[in-house]
Amino acid sequence: MTLTDLLLQAVLALCVTIGFGVLFNVLPRALIPCGLVGVLGHLARFSLRQLGVSNEVSTFLGALVVGLFGYWVSRRLRMPRLVFTVTGIITMIPGISAYETIIFFSRGNILDGLQSAVRAGLATAAIAIGLSTARILTEFELSFYS
C-alpha cells in the first residue's frame, strides 16, 4: 500500500460518492462533505483490507466510520444524516459478489454461486451493522417509557 494507491482510491471514492450525490439530488453545498465522508469510509476499508483484515470486518469498520462522520457532518451542516451516510456507503456495496452470484447460478455452478452469495450477504450485513452501531453510539435520547 503506497501513497499513490491511497490517493488513487481517495480520488475514485470522491468521484463515486459525489456522482451518487448528484444522482440522489443532494444539495450542491453538501456534495463535497458527502464526498469526504465517502472517502474516509472507503479509505478506512481499503487500508484495513491491504493490512490483511477480512472483508467483513473491514467493511463493518468502514461503515462505522461513514456513520460516525456522517453524523458529525450532518450536525455541522444541519442536514439529515441520511444525506451523508447513504452516499458515503455506496463504495462498499458488494456489487461484484452479487453479480458473480447471478453469473454462477446462470451457468449452473451452484457451489460457487452460493459461496459468492454468502460473501455478498456478509458484506451487506457488515454495512448494516456498522451503520447501526454508529447510530446507537450517536443516539443520545433516553426513553424510559418504551
The shape is: globular
The biggest beta sheet reads:
none
Order of helices and strands: HHHHHH
Can you tell me the number of structural domains? 1
Structure, described:
The protein is mainly α. The protein has one domain. 80% of the residues lie in helices and 0% in strands. The chain contains 6 helices and no strands. Helix 2 runs antiparallel to helix 3.
Describe, in short, the structure shown.
It is built from six helices and no strands. It has 146 residues and is mainly α. The chain has one domain (3-138).
Write out key terms for the chains shown.
single chain; 146 residues; mainly alpha; 6 helices; 80% helix
Topology:
Blueprint: H1 3-23, H2 28-50, H3 55-77, H4 81-89, H5 95-106, H6 110-138
Helix pairs in contact: 1-2, 1-4, 2-3, 2-4, 3-4, 3-6, 5-6
